[in-house]
Structures are given as C-alpha cells and as structure tokens.
C-alpha cells in the first residue's frame, strides 16, 4: 500500500489483493489493516477507511512503541 492522501476503504484493498468483496473476504483484510493501524503503520480515520501516513509520522509512531 503506497502513501496516499485519501483514505482507502478495506473493500478496495481486498479487491487489489485479489480477494472478493463478500463480507467473508473483506473482514479478514479489515482485521489485518486494523492491526497495522494499531501498530502505527496505517492511519485510521474516524469513519474507518485507512491510509498510510507519511514516513516521518510512521517513524514517530515506531519510536513511541519502542520506549
């Protein structure tokens, strides 16, 4: 997932990964994206779509996790 200024819905990411759009195919992707957001690799908007933060933001999040 490249850095993007606009949030990307989990359904779109699921399709790009070659999975379908059925709930059983999107939910595992959404769970993995949520874990990445919890670890600071992605930024989750209040509405739910995700996007990758700038490298500086990610590094700040990683440094917070290591302390």
Low-confidence stretches: 56-67
Number of strands: 2
Fraction in beta strands? 5-15%
User: Major sheet: size, sense and barrel closure?
Assistant: 2 strands, antiparallel
Work out the radius of gyration. Answer: 12 Å
User: Which overall shape is indicated by the principal axes computed on the Cα atoms?
Assistant: globular
Number of helices: 3
- The amount of helix comes to 40-55%
Average of the residue pLDDT scores: 75
Question: Could you characterize the architecture of this molecule?
Answer:
This protein has 67 residues and is mostly helical. The chain has one domain. Helix content is 52%, strand content 6%. Strands 1-2 form a two-stranded antiparallel ribbon. 6% of the residues are buried.
Task: Provide key terms for this protein.
mainly alpha; globular; 67 residues; disordered C terminus; 3 helices
